[in-house]
Amino acid sequence: MTTLDGAATAAPAALRAGPNPTGGGRWSWVPTWTMITTRLMELRRRRGLMIALIVVNIGLPTLFLVVRLVAHAVAPKSYGPAGGYDIYGGLVAGVMYVFGFIVAATVGATAGSSDLTDGMFRHLVVTGRSRLALYLARIPAGLAIIASLVAAGFTIVCVVCVFAAPTQVNYSGVNLPAGMSRAQFLTWSGDHPTEVLCDFPGPSPAQLNCGPGSGPVVERPGAPAAPAAQPSPAALRRLALSNAEADYTDYRKQFLYPSTTLMVQSGLWIELEATIGFLVGLGLASLLGQRTVAVILMIVLEVILTPLFSRVAIPHLINLQRGVVGLATAHLEPSALPVLFAGGNGGGGPGGMRQLVPETHLVAALVITAWVVGWTVIGAWRMITRDA
Q: Which residues does 269 contact at the CB level (< 8 Å), separation at least 6?
C-alpha cells in the first residue's frame, strides 16, 4: 500500500517539477513530429479556410488564364495570347504577391488563435506538454500548407505564361521578332523605317510629322506654311538606323516569356512574402487571442500602410518607413518584375528603385529578420504566459 501511495503521488510531483532537466520527452520545447502532424491535420480540417486558400492561390490565377486562353482561341485578332512576359509580371507582382501575403496571414491568425476560440487551450496545457513546443509546432504545419498552395498556383502561372506566350514582341505598339542581336535589330529597322520613326521612342535627328497614312515627313524649318517634303528612302533609312541605335538597349529588355532564372527568383520571393505573412499573423493572433482583429490589421498593413509608406517619403519618419516589412520585401523583388505599388519599371532596376523609399538590401534583410523573429518571440511569450 505504501508503494502504491508513493507511486500515486510521484506523477503529480513530476508534473509540478517543471521541465525535464534532460530536455527531452514531454517537457521538451522542441515539437515532436506527432505534434506537428496534429497541428497540420487541425488546419486541414477547416474546410472553409482551405477552400478560401485554394480559391485565392490557385483559383483566381487559373480563372484569369483560362478566360484569356478561351478569348484568344475565339478571337485571336481582338485578344492577345494568354501567356507571355507581361502577363507573368502582372500576375506575380500584382496578384500572387498581395493575396499570398493576406491568405498566409489568415492561416497564421487561425493557427495562433484556434486553441483559444475552440476552448482547447486548457486541455493542451494540462497534458504537461511544453507550451513553447505547442506554439512552435504550428510553424512547420502552417508553412507546409501555405508553401504548397502558393507553389501550385505559381506553377500554373509559369506553365501557361511559357507555353502560351506570344510569338512576337510588342515594342511600343510594333510587333517584331524577339531576341535579335544589335545587327539584326538595325537590319530590321532599316527595312521598316516608318515603324521606327513614327512609333519607337528615342531621340530623332530631324523634326518629323507622322501624318495618318502619309508616313514620316520632314517639316521645313522656318516655313510652317510650306508643304512638307517627303524624305527619300535613303534618308528615311538613315534616320531609322539612328533611332534604332538609341532604342536597342530598351528593346533588349523585352521578352516573349519569363526566363528560368526569373521564375526561380520570383517563386522564392513570393514564398518569402507568404512566410512573413504567416509568421506575423501567427504571432499577432497569439498576442491578441483572436483571429478577426489580427486578419483585419494584416490586411490594413498590406493594402493601405505598406503602399503609402513605400512610395511617399516622409522626411521625419523615413527611418520608421524603412522598418515596414513590405518595403523591405519590395526592395528584394527580382529586377525584371514590374515595381510594386502602382506599377512602373522593374523592381530592382534603377527606374523602379527610384519610385520606392530608398533602402539597401542589407537593411531590408535585417528588417525582415526582425519582423519574423520579433513576432515569433512575442507570440511564443504570450502562449507561455497566458492563463489556462
A: 97, 329, 332, 333, 334
